[in-house]
Design a protein that fits this description.
Lipocalin; 50% strand; 8-stranded antiparallel β-barrel; single chain
């Protein structure tokens, strides 16, 4: 109901990502390997999403602070930030900037953009859900200010495509391919 009511009144609007509670933003990387599985998370995501729910068009740019990823083991986090891995001293952030957003159906979109990680940029295409939510008593009770947009996506990347090399001692403990999950809320206020 909230979504349908908002579509009729909306137009192309810029939504700020990262201005509210860190709980509004979620970035996870899931690694599955022969000897160890782990999930790294961060809420340090900023950027903007421009969305027009009536025309079903949009664009956006997000910045993820990968130096802030936590896996639950401090030593593993330290290794991930090292030069051979993510090299967060030189490349503290990953970015994703859309180049094409195509409406599929309902709240489903096909998004293409440039993902930059560790100084390497690759084009990726993924499915995403995009929900527009008009400001209401319900959104204010949830401590949101202004109209909202929620974007969720999940996709896989091969670490070696981004010059992330798994050293011999970590083989079988880190997946060559990891799953990225992203959920962000943007607000107009």
């Amino acid at each position: 109901m909230i979504l349908a009511a908002g579509i009729t009144a909306a137009q192309s609007t810029t939504f700020k990502i990262g201005g509210g509670s860190p709980a509004m933003q979620s970035f996870t990387v899931d690694s599955t390997a022969d000897f160890e599985d782990f999930t790294g998370t961060t809420n340090a995501i900023t950027g903007t999403v421009v969305f027009d729910p009536s025309k079903r068009t949009g664009s956006g740019k997000l910045t993820i602070n990968v130096a802030n990823i936590k896996t639950g083991i401090d030593l593993r986090d330290e290794h991930m930030r090292a030069e051979g891995w993510l090299n967060t001293a030189k490349f503290p952030n990953a970015t994703f900037e859309t180049t094409r957003v195509q409406f599929v159906s309902g709240t489903n979109y096909r998004v293409t953009g440039n993902l930059t990680l560790k100084g390497v940029t690759k084009v990726i295409t993924t499915n995403a859900t995009v929900r527009f939510i008009k400001e209401s008593e319900q959104t204010r009770a949830a401590r949101f200010k202004g109209d909202l947009v929620n974007v969720k996506t999940e996709f896989k990347i091969r670490l070696s495509d981004y010059n992330v090399q798994i050293p011999a001692q970590a083989k079988g403990k880190v997946g060559e391919v990891v799953t990225i999950k992203l959920s962000v809320f943007g607000t107009t206020a």
